Amino acid sequence: MPNSPDLFFAGGECLTKHGVWVRRTSLPEDIAETFTRTGTEGVSQAPDGKFTTCDANIPRAAYPVVGASHVPALLTERAATNVCLQTEDFTATWTNATGITVTANDAVAPDGATTADELDESDAANLDQMFQNVTVADDSTSWCFSVFIKKTTGAVTFYPAIQLGLTGGTGIVVQVVIDTTNGTIANGTTAPDASGIEDYSTDWWRVWLAQANNGTGNVTAQPLIAPAWNTTGSGSEEVAAVGAIHAWGTQLENTSRPTSYIPVGTSPISETRNIESFSAPFPFKPQAMTAYWKGVWRAADQATSGEFPRLFSVGAIGNEFAVYHSPTGARLRVFHDPQTAGVTGDITTGALAVGDLVEVVAWLNADGSVQGSASINSGAATSDSASSADALGTAWGAETIYLGTTSAAGTGALPVAHLLALKLTRGIKTLAEMRAMT
Q1: Which residues, 6+ apart, have CB-to-CB distance to 138 below 8 Å?
Q2: What DSSP state is assigned to residue 83?
Q3: Contact by Cβ (8 Å): 203, 131
Q4: Alpha carbon 379 to chain centroid, angstroms
Q5: Residues 6+ apart with CB under 8 A from 67
Q6: How far apart are CA 214 and CA 143, in angstroms?
């Protein structure tokens, strides 16, 4: 169904098909979308998986794995700060305890430069680790530590680990153990609140863990890397374990899930990526329509503090049609708010995992009711009953579509997913019909 009429199309699949991030067949192509970033530049991912920088107010790309290939996706995120120091240099700031040999600039890093360090633990008589201490608030918020670890091939004889400690009160120390050949992780001595491993590029994994503080006086966070944690792949550290890894791009941020990497140079400062937002003129008045959303899920169950991240929102609060993520229950919900109480329909999926390929179809019916369907990892689609009716308004709260916002349309995006495709069209269409539209 090429060049479908009355189609709003956005995301990585639109970029691949048409060479633009957003296409509207019912509006002139010179009516452009708006992307804003309050910082001067942002780190993006190139098609070969390497990092690149993009100027202010230019959309950022990611290339998540779908099937066996890296495919383009639109990336939007909220503000974040990396409080790790010397994120690409383990010869400075990082404490070497006790006998790790650091070979600086020993491998090609994810940014294409030869800046990844080798961390070689050859001391079978001690527990050898690299760490730094960062001052944090005594509260109950979450901290996320992430790092890029180079892939290996062949038989696995040792397993590295990353660890996050929160100390000063009732301390917390959590770890994940990494299989650098197969791209899997397991809990160490103590499991974190959340963790994951991302197939970032041909040569690199990105590994992360997150843990909430407990408000008992913990004011020091300690991100730590153990090049050879043990020889079993899970559980406690073994003194006798030895081995070498390549590591690069450490990040410690006050979030429950990792955002894209923010490099911090040799100066002892943190660097901040500011709020991004992506919006575009929307051509259809309130009417029966179908929305199709497809993305690679970046983190599981992440709505916090009353925020419900939207996969997309047509219009603004006061009259909108949206699909949002909830941390419990149906996980995905479709919402219609025509200046009254609004109606909500469940889209049953169960818990979503990092790396899931998520497809959602949401229907806004002529009577203002909503209904949704979802397919996870190309499996059979589930479909829920329609909500009650709620008469359509005469106009949207804003004649705009927003991508990846929180409950207030247009505000800083949460890291819900890498956007592969967003399509909206008039009338009620099936999942198969929406997949085919371009």
Answers
A1: 168, 169, 213, 215, 216, 217, 218, 219
A2: -
A3: no
A4: 22
A5: none
A6: 11
Residue range(s) occupied by CATH 2.60.120.260 in the chain: 81-272
Q: For residue 360, what pLDDT is reported?
A: 93
* Burial annotation 23-33 (CB, 10 A radius, 16+ → b, else e): bbbeeeeeeeb
Strand partners, 409: none
Strand-strand pairing, 271-273 and 159-167: unpaired
Cβ contacts of residue 124 below 8 Å, gap of 6+? 239, 240, 241, 242
Residues of the chain with CATH 2.60.120.200: 7-34+277-436
What gap in Å lies between CA 217 and CA 230, rounded to an integer?
A: 31
Classify domain 81-272 at the CATH topology level.
Jelly Rolls (2.60.120)
Global confidence as pTM: 0.82
Yes or no: say if 399 and 413 are a contact pair by the CB < 8 Å rule.
no
The amino acid at residue 434 is M
Q: Tokens representing 184?
A: 């899997």
One-letter amino acid at 392 equals L
**Could you read off the pLDDT of 200-255 as tens digits, one per residue?**
888 999 999 999 999 999 999 999 999 999 999 998 999 999 999 999 999 999 98
CA angle, 429 as apex, 426 and 432 as ends, to 5°? 135
Describe the chain by its helix, strand, coil percentages, rounded to 5: 5, 45, 50
Q: How far is CA 66 from the centre of its chain?
A: 15
Domain at 7-34+277-436, CATH class: mainly beta
Decide if 148 contacts 51 (C-beta within 8 A): no
* Pair of tokens at residue 299: 């983190």
Q: How far apart are CA 416 and CA 311, in angstroms?
A: 7
**Pair of tokens at residue 292:** 């199709």
Q: 181, 243 in Cβ contact below 8 A?
A: no
* First-to-final CA distance of the chain: 7
